[in-house]
Amino acid sequence: MHHITIAAIATPPGIGGVGIIRISGPASVQIAQKIAGIVPPPRQAVLRQFRDTQGTVLDQGILIYFPSPNSFTGDDVLELHAHGGPIVLDLLLQQALILGAQLARPGEFTERAYLAGKIDLTQAEAVADLISSSTSAAALASARTLQGAFSQQIYNLKDKLLALRTLVEASLDFPDEPIDLLSSENLLGQIDELNGIQQTLVQGAKQGQLLRDGITLVIAGPPNAGKSSLLNAFTGRDTAIVTPIPGTTRDLLHDSMQIDGMPVHLLDTAGIHEAVTDVVEQEGIRRAKEAISQADRVLWVFDDAADQTQQLLNPEQIVIPPIQFTLVRNKIDLTGTAPGIKHTDSRYIEIAVSAKTGLGLDVLRQHLKACVGYQDTGEGNYMARRRHLDILHQVSTHLQAARSLITSTAAYELIAEELRQAHNALGYITGELLPDELLGEIFSQFCIGK
Fold first, then answer.
1. Rounded CA gap, 41 and 43, in Å?
2. How would you class 25 by CB atoms within 10 Å of its CB: exposed for 0-12, middle for 13-18, buried for 19 or more?
3. What is the pLDDT of residue 281?
4. What angle do CA 147, 149, 150 make, to 5 degrees?
5. Which whole-number Å values give the CA distances from 407 to 179, 195, 396, 403, 416, in the listed order?
6. Would you put residue 44 in left (φ > 0), alpha (ψ -120 to 50) or beta?
7. Which of 283, 310, 360, 438 has CB atoms 3.0–4.6 Å from 339's, for a disulfide?
8. Cα separations (Å) of 118 from 127, 133, 252?
9. What's the 3-state SS for 22-88?
10. pTM of the full predicted structure?
11. 305 three-state secondary structure
12. Pick the CATH number of 216-372 from 3.40.190.80, 3.40.50.920, 3.40.50.300, 3.40.50.410
């Protein structure tokens, strides 16, 4: 239980019907007495007037008290449900601070819940992910992670790793005792089973990371190829100005869409070509190339009716591996070219579309999903982060090392060490072995009041 009481506004900035002040810590009851004039009954909504230290009525609202340990943070928790104006909420927050509370850091309430053992770290991260979800699929996946869907699979792998590690270490401690389960064939079978579980986890985590972070998709190509029209067709709104004049787009245009729940961060760019004398256009092309270098995928758009030898990729313009490019043959409504994937001698996949009529865009969307390995698995999804994937890959490295040792030297000391490293790595996902500085970094990304 913490000795410091913290307080913050728990609802978003702005004007609304209801705003909430959240208070957690040992001074919660005292603050309730001073502001609302009563010791609140546990877990009951009580209508009270909220007053300042001079007795002036600030607002009238609902008071709810959650005594320790049966609260979100494990501490005494008090919530003041007031009218949702920023001035009213600020006045009530100031009273809580005057009465002994400290302003909460970003994510401090959820951090306290984690430290109290109410949730593990993946569930704590899911709180922030649920709040910041940009698609309904991401929100549902975050909710499942908050309920422990991801954690349960991690703990299952940890338990199996620990059981095998215990057998291996027992053979070292009691070398004269026969342990039938430690034949090389049996060990290999158990390692392969663990690898299978790990690979399933990686696949699920990849889907969760795509749901959380999405992909950055850059639309590039020569001038007047229909890049801005494609951006507008993707988003369903007139984000970009479209004219027949080449060079209309001179700066990066940002927008977003989703493909079956996967967020896609779109960047429309200035047309790239060589004969440039205009200083503004030169800067636009520089920014376009910089955006290309940071993209997860690039759509190189060209006009199906124009001279393609002047429009296709110039290797000097490519600053990322070519596998990240897709050629988009646009304006097929003017040429009669059939929509869809085109089979060419190019090393790039080519898709024929019409940004104006929408022909071929569904094929392009499905292609983008396939490029990043996204699968809309519906209710089975859970939320994950890049750090989770990195750790799971570390687990795979240790399991593969253990397997190699079994087939080569059968040195049980080294096998046990690889299993220990794999087991400990999983503790960084759930937070059991997380360094304090990394813990602080994770919770600093939360909003204040959560």
1. 7
2. buried
3. 81
4. 120
5. 18, 16, 17, 6, 14
6. beta
7. 360
8. 13, 23, 44
9. EEECCCHHHHHHHHHCCCCCECCCEEEEEECCCCCEEEEEEEEEECCCCCCCCCCEEEEEEEECHHH
10. 0.81
11. coil
12. 3.40.50.300
pLDDT digits (tens, 9 = 90+) for 181-235: 566 678 888 999 999 999 999 999 999 999 999 999 999 988 889 999 999 999 9
State the Cα angle at 244 between 227 and 316, rounded to 5°: 45
- Verify cis geometry, omega within 30 degrees of 0, for the bond prior to 86: no
Task: For strands 253-259 and 262-268, give the pairing.
Answer: antiparallel
Please give the torsion angle defined by the CA atoms of residues 142, 143, 147 and 150, in that order, rounded to the nearest 10 degrees: -30
Taking the domains of the chain in order of start, what are their residue ranges? Answer: 6-104, 131-210+385-443, 216-372
Cα 138 from Cα 159, distance rounded (Å):
28
**Two tokens, residue 324:** 């990240």
The closest alpha carbon to 439, from 114, 174, 51, 42, belongs to: 114
- Give the closest residue to 179 by CA, choosing from 198, 164, 194: 164
The answer to whether 57 and 51 are in contact (CB under 8 A) is yes
Pairing relation of β-strands 325-330 and 262-268?
A: unpaired
pLDDT in tens, 99-111: 999 999 999 999 9
Crossing angle for the helix pair 412-430 and 149-173, to the nearest 10 degrees: 160
